[in-house]
Amino acid sequence: MPEYLTADQLKQILDEKLDQKLIPLNLKVSELSTKLEDAMQFIDLANSKYEEVITKLNSHEIARIEIQEENKILRSALQQTESQVLQFKNSYNDLEQYSRRECVEIQGIPAPDHPTKESTNDIVMKIASKFMDIDITEKDISVSHRLPVNKGYKGNRPEPAIIVKFVRRDTKVAFYRARSKLKNKTTRDLGYQAANGIYINESLTEMNKALFKCCLKTKKDLNYKYIWTSNGRIYLRKNEESHRIYIKNEGQLTKLLS
């Protein structure tokens, strides 16, 4: 006869069997719990780092905005300073040009071997009386002398110009206006061996000389007919029918060329 198990015995056997089956599963659950805990710790750390990064980014953005504002202020201040410097340069240039209002420069006159061998005053008076029908005496001339030649000049060096400062502005104006009478004259007519052309120009500041050089190029590029100075101001004129253009800066030349 088979032995019958009691209900308690059967329950014990089933519990033992179930426990044996659940052991691997419990191990897996425990392992997963550990991994889940590690993952949660990593997520917490990542969230912490993310918040830290966001905080830093926000502070950097604020700093960037502050730097941009500071740069705007600095650029504005720099522009104002540059504008003031330009105004100062222009004012200084105008003042220097005004100080030359009684001056002209004579170009083309051959220079002697030694400066003491010539009288630039005599040259001025001779040009005035021989070619211009103007009576100029020593009393009309404040000072005259040769100008130094720029050492950086490339090519054949021109004859150093003679600068003349007249005592009165009206004498300078008369002398300068009569320069057209020198059109067909050369230095040979003054007794020199060389036959150089004689040119009379207003005495310009270095800044105005540079501008005049640019104007000459523009005149050539645009095929303008006239360029001249009057009281240190530079003028361009396309032809007899057109209006004169007072050139104050290179920006005007750029507009003419565009």
From TrEMBL:
At the top level, the lineage of the source is Eukaryota
* Pfam families linked to this entry: Baculo_FP_2nd
Q: Which residues form the FP protein C-terminal domain?
A: 205-256
Q: What is this protein called?
A: FP protein C-terminal domain-containing protein
The upper taxonomy is: Eukaryota, Metazoa, Cnidaria, Anthozoa, Octocorallia
